[in-house]
Specification:
- The complex is a heterodimer.
- Chain A is mainly alpha-helical.
- Chain A has one domain: Orthogonal Bundle (MetI-like fold), CATH 1.10.3720.
- Chain A is built from 8 helices and no strands.
- In chain A, helix 1 runs antiparallel to helix 6 and helix 4 packs across helix 6.
- Chain B has one domain: MetI-like (MetI-like fold).
- Chain B has 9 helices and no strands.
- The longest helix of chain B is centred in the N-terminal third of the chain and has 35 residues.
- The chains are: A mainly alpha, B mainly alpha.
Chain lengths: ~220, ~220
């Protein structure tokens, strides 16, 4: 049997945590792109588009992320689409992230006073110019803090990818536990590493929020 | 390739499915009640509790909010027995869910009580109410009413999160789904079915809690 010192445990967990960071980054960027497209689709003003995006959001926010992962991993495989745990996890987390981001961003766009749209129209700007020069810069300012805050949810969400066999921080924790029989220590370390990843993001989101409120007051 | 979908082989297992749904709802109900109680207590500690004790809820909230639920669950179920606390899967699930919801509820309720006008607290003390009475009768009811929608959302997030509890063999809905698909080899249909049930549970629970909140919890004082 191999002896694991505390240093071995921590070192292996930190190596695995890199995959957590990578998967979070993919999901966050992919979710941002898909969410942005959905936002444009929703803002197009068509009732059908609005309904479709609302349904999409409800579907992903109203079902467990675990089920979404299982469906993309085990479910699609049965339909003949064989995906690696890598691709499945990235796909499911991207869709999940996009559903939350589009909802956050829609709220930010809605928070822009109607008068801004009307003023832009009265300057004879077309729709894309209105969005680009008037609405987007203002919405972006209020959108950044909740978006950064949501990144914490994405990092925590990647922990579920361990259940479809993707070796990231949580899965590494399970594997090391099975080798060392020290669950208290190992899961404690896993939790601490997640905390070290997430807490600075939480603090940053909070400080951004504070800044926005300060300039408004 | 033609794919035949077969949902009937899942519906055949309805007694299992019903017990899974019952477990999911039961776990959620218990953790909602105790989680909100933790929230009410710790929100008070953070706002008016003894200074030397304030670090505890603050640390607890930040630690829970910045770690994944599944790690909390594994820590409780696999880790705590090393310390001599041996829990059944069901008890571990409930404990992890209560702790998780408690942290979020603390933050949500704290936001609500911070919005209480100072004059109301002064009015309360001028009626010779003690601090506990002021908190429970004057500050808390309007604060809870204000943050109720946020609490409902969080309870639903915890319910959806409880799908993970199946991993330590708590017999809730996702565990049942796993069991059924291992029997009939129809993973896609089974998980689709379970996902739809979760969606309906989430929509139904939100409607129910909003209705309860308006009708029974906070409605009477509105007059």
């Amino acid at each position: 049997m191999v002896e694991f010192s505390l240093w071995d445990i921590v070192r292996n967990l930190v190596i695995a945590a890199q995959w957590t960071v990578l998967l979070s980054t993919i999901a966050f960027i992919g979710g941002g792109v898909v969410g942005g497209l959905l936002l444009v689709f929703r803002m197009s003003g068509s009732i059908l588009a609005n309904r479709l995006v609302a349904g999409y959001v409800q579907l992903f926010q109203g079902t467990p992320l675990l089920m979404q992962l299982f469906l993309t991993y085990f479910g699609l495989a049965l339909l003949g689409v064989e995906l690696s745990s890598w691709v499945s996890a990235s796909l499911a987390l991207t869709l999940y992230t996009s559903a939350f981001l589009v909802e956050i961003w829609r709220g930010c766009v809605n928070a822009i006073p109607k008068g801004q749209w009307e003023a832009a129209q009265s300057l004879a700007l077309n729709f894309s110019e209105q969005v680009r020069y008037i609405i987007f810069p203002q919405a972006l300012r209020i959108a950044i803090p909740p978006t950064v805050g949501f990144l914490v949810q994405v990092v925590k969400g990647t922990a579920l990818a361990s259940l479809i066999g993707f070796v990231e921080l949580t899965k590494a924790g399970t594997m090391i536990t099975n080798a060392t029989f020290k669950p208290f220590l190992v899961y404690g370390c896993v939790a601490v590493i997640y905390f070290i990843l997430c807490y600075p993001i939480s603090l940053y989101a909070k400080s951004l929020e504070g800044k926005i409120n300060a300039t408004r007051a | 390739m033609r794919v035949e979908l077969d949902f009937l082989s899942i519906l055949d297992q309805w007694p299992l499915l019903l017990s899974g749904i019952a477990w999911t709802l039961g776990l959620t109900a218990v953790s909602a009640v105790f989680g909100v109680l933790i929230g009410i207590t710790f929100a008070w500690v953070r706002a008016w509790g003894p200074t030397w004790f304030k670090w505890l809820p603050a640390t607890y909230v930040e630690f829970i909010r910045n770690t994944p639920f599944i790690v909390q669950l594994f820590f409780v179920f696999f880790g705590l027995p090393m310390m001599g606390v041996k829990l059944s899967p069901e008890a571990a699930s409930i404990l992890a869910m209560v702790l998780n919801l408690g942290a979020y509820a603390t933050e949500i309720i704290r936001a609500g009580i911070q919005a209480t006008p100072r004059g109301q607290i002064e009015a309360g003390s001028s009626l010779a109410l003690n601090r506990m009475q002021i908190y429970l009768h004057i500050i808390l009811p309007p604060a809870l009413r204000k943050v109720w929608p946020a609490l409902v959302s969080q309870i639903i997030i915890v319910m959806l999160g409880s799908a993970v509890c199946g991993q330590i063999s708590t017999p809730e809905l996702s565990f049942v789904a796993n069991l059924i698909q291992s029997r009939n080899f129809r993973a896609f249909e089974t998980y689709i079915f379970a996902t739809i049930v979760y969606l309906l549970l989430a929509i139904g629970l939100r409607a129910l809690l909003n209705w309860l909140g308006a009708r029974y919890f906070f409605g009477a004082r509105r007059g």
